[in-house]
Structures are given as structure tokens and as C-alpha cells.
Amino acid sequence: MFINSRNISLLTIFICLRLCFGITPVFALAGTDTTKLSLDRAERIFIENNLQVLAQKYNVEATKALIIQAKLYPNPNFNFAQQGYNPGNGRWFEMGADAEEAYQVSQLIVLSHKIKKQVHIAETNYKIAEDNLYDLLRTLKYGLRSTFYNIYYLQQTARVYDEEIKALKKVVAAYKEVQGKGYVAESEIVQVQAQLYSLESEYQGVIENINDQQSQLRLFLQAKPEHYYLPEVNTTLLTQDPTEYSYKTLLDSADAHRTDLMIARDNLVLAQQNYTLQKALAVPDLTVGFNADRHGSYYTDFNSLSLGIDVPIFNRNQGNIKNAKLLTNYNKAELELTAKTTEEEVARGLQKAIDANRMYNEIDTDFSHHFEKLAKAMLDNYMKRNVNLLTFLTFYDSYKQNVVQFNTILYNKVAALESLNFLTGTDFYNK
């Protein structure tokens, strides 16, 4: 059968369009467990399985136990003494009415409300541990959601590369069947192959990025290496306007819910409580005791009440008090810095979200539908010999570039809204 260049071009165009609109590529490696995954389900798995969160929960419970310890009073002390050797009768460890025995019971009385102050410190440490848990959850949740959306939009981009690469491979294969017969110019084959190699290189970069993100997602979910996820995204998030909430509303939310701010405040409270405790420790505690001695005094069965207290002449806890005061000033400065950083982060995050929203509003969401019409028109023109194959492929390459930018813009808006959720500590944009 005689094949001319016109028949070859029409054949390759038909193959190209068939691939573009009728093939769903698979990006998972052979042998992997490919799973569709919604964001809600991903978050549930994350909460149940993440080892970092589990470890921090144990730390919170361990810190809570220290509150119990801080409430405990010192134990009483009991001391018993017995004569070892009686030189009067030559007996060792003599027992009975004539033996020398002494008893002492003492109790430390903690003054200046030290125990109460220690309890306050333990309670604050417990609150800081809780805040650290919530801050870890907040940070990991943001990472999980960002990774989830990044995988989704990278996979959309990869599909475009996959479609075009498969189309070009079909074109190259069709050309090679008639190579050297004069139907197709060698230079045209070389140009198509060069475009194919360039696309494959770009495609490999996208796939590597997806696999890196898949690895990160598996770490979040504590999944096995053979798991490969296909995120299912609710696109209603894209319809949200970041200006729906004012800067003041967002900042007030950050002030009330940002766990790093809470930790900074709690650290200042802890430093102040420690300063109060260190001053209280300068006050000596009182030891009360009762003593009984059978034969060791000037009369039999001597007993007495004792009171003991340190005399604060040399050690008045001066160094610890000074250290606690300086740490209070340090934590006060840290809180001010964290508050100012929060203000700037929320302001910048809102501006990024507004910019990303503006870019989103400028794109044509019916872009893919318009391209299908253009592709049909391109095919008609090609069949009429108004355009050649390379012109068509150039058009399709332009489409690929636009789709890549389109997915980038969509991801940038979602990422900006998720960033605002993270910066404000509130799920304003998780509808």
C-alpha cells in the first residue's frame, strides 16, 4: 500500500488527539499499592498513626505526673540509736530496760508557701507541654495539607507531560516506519525527537518531585513504602476569597490561637513563677523534732522537743534569684519578638493570599474546554494543508506550558489559604 506524507501526518494527528483525550496515565511504580485518598481521611490517619504526635502525648502525660509530685510534702524522718558496746558489763547490743536506746522523730516544715509555688510551676510546665503538642499538631497538619495539595496538582501537570510524550512517541514510531523512503524529511524527524527528549527530561523532574512528596506523605501517615496515593481534592476551597476576613480578624485569631504565642506567654509566666520561688527559697525551712533517750542523759527516759532552722548568713540564694530575674527579662523580650513576628507573618500571608487570588481570578477556568475546540480547528486546518505537523505540535506544547502554569496558579492559591490557616491558628479557609 502506498503511503504519502499527507496520510502519515493525518495518521499521527489522529493518534496524538486520541492519546490527548482518551488515556489516563498511571504514575505509580509497578507493584505499588495505589490508593485514592481524601484530605479528611488523610488527617484521621495522621492523628491515629503519627509517631511524633504519639511521643509528644506521652511527654504531656509525663509532665502532668510532676504536678502530683510537686504537691507532696516532705516525709517525716525517724531515727533510732542503740548502744553498740556497754563497757560496764562488756555486752554488745544490749537489749532490755538497762540498755541505752534513743529515738528521734522529725518533720521538715516548708515555709514561705514553697510547695504551692512549686505546684504552680509544675502546672505551667504541663500547659507548655500541651501547647507544644498542639504546636506540633499545627505544624505537621500544615505540612500534611501542603504536601497533599502539592501532590494533587503535580499529578495534574504530569498527566499533560505523559499525554504529549506518548503522542510524540507514536509520531516518531510512525515516521521511522517510512524513514529513508522520502515521505518525511529527516530534519522533521530530528526536530520531533529533540522535542520528545526535552519533554521526557522535564517529565522526569516532575515525577521525581511527586515521588519526593509521596515519601513525605507516607511519613506523615506512617505508611509503608509501597503505598502510592492519588489525592482527591475538593475544589470549593478555590472559590474562597481571602479578603472575606479582615486583617484585624486574622490577627486577633492568631493572638488567641497561635500555639507559639501561647508557649512564649507560658514561658514568661514560668520565668516569673521561678523568680518568685527562688526568692522564697531564700527563706530557711523549719525542722520540728521529738527526741527520746532512755539512759543517755542526766536522768532516765529523757525526752525533748527540738526546733531547727538554717541561719541565712552566707547562702541567701542570691545567684539563683538574679538568674531567675534575668530569665524573666529574657522571656519578656522573646514574647515581644514573637508577637511582632506574628503580626508581620499574618500581614504578609494575607498579602500573598490576595495576590494568589488575583492571579486565580484572571485565569480562564474553561481553558481545557476551549483547547478542545481549538484542537479540532487545528485538525481541520491540518487536513486542509493550511498547517503542518510541527505547527500542530508547537500548539500542543504551548497548551502544555499553559496547563503547567494553570496548575501552579491553582496550587499557589490553595497553598496561600492553607498558610493563612497555619499563621492564624484557625481553619478559616478549610471549608
Which helices and strands appear, and what pairs or packs with what?
Blueprint: H1 5-22, E1 33-38, H2 39-49, H3 51-70, E2 77-82, E3 85-86, E4 91-92, E5 101-109, H4 114-177, H5 186-221, E6 227-232, H6 247-257, H7 259-281, E7 286-293, E8 302-309, H8 318-362, H9 367-383, H10 389-424
Parallel strand pairs: 1-6
Antiparallel strand pairs: 2-5, 3-4, 5-7, 7-8
Structure, explained:
With 431 residues, this protein is an alpha+beta fold. The protein folds into two domains: 5-71 and 124-244 and 347-424, Outer membrane efflux proteins (OEP), CATH 1.20.1600; 74-109 and 284-316. Helices cover 65% and strands 11% of the residues. The chain contains ten helices and eight strands. The chain has helices spanning 5-22, 39-49, 51-70, 114-177, 186-221, 247-257, 259-281, 318-362, 367-383, 389-424, and strands at residues 33-38, 77-82, 85-86, 91-92, 101-109, 227-232, 286-293, 302-309. A four-stranded antiparallel β-sheet has the order 2-5-7-8, with no helix packed on it. Strands 1-6 form a two-stranded parallel sheet. A hairpin with an 8-residue loop joins strand 7 (286-293) and strand 8. It is elongated and about 135 Å long. The two termini are 61 Å apart.
Described by strand count, sense and barrel closure, the largest sheet is:
4 strands, antiparallel
CATH class group of the largest domain: Mainly Alpha
Mean pLDDT: 84
Order of helices and strands: HEHHEEEEHHEHHEEHHH
The spatial strand order of the largest sheet comes to: 2-5-7-8
Helical content stands at 55-70%
Q: Per CATH, which architecture of the largest domain?
A: Up-down Bundle
| Number of discrete domains | 2
CATH topology of the largest domain: Outer membrane efflux proteins (OEP)
Number of strands: 8
Show unreliable segments.
Answer: 1-26
SSE-based structural type: alpha+beta
Count of alpha/pi helices: 10
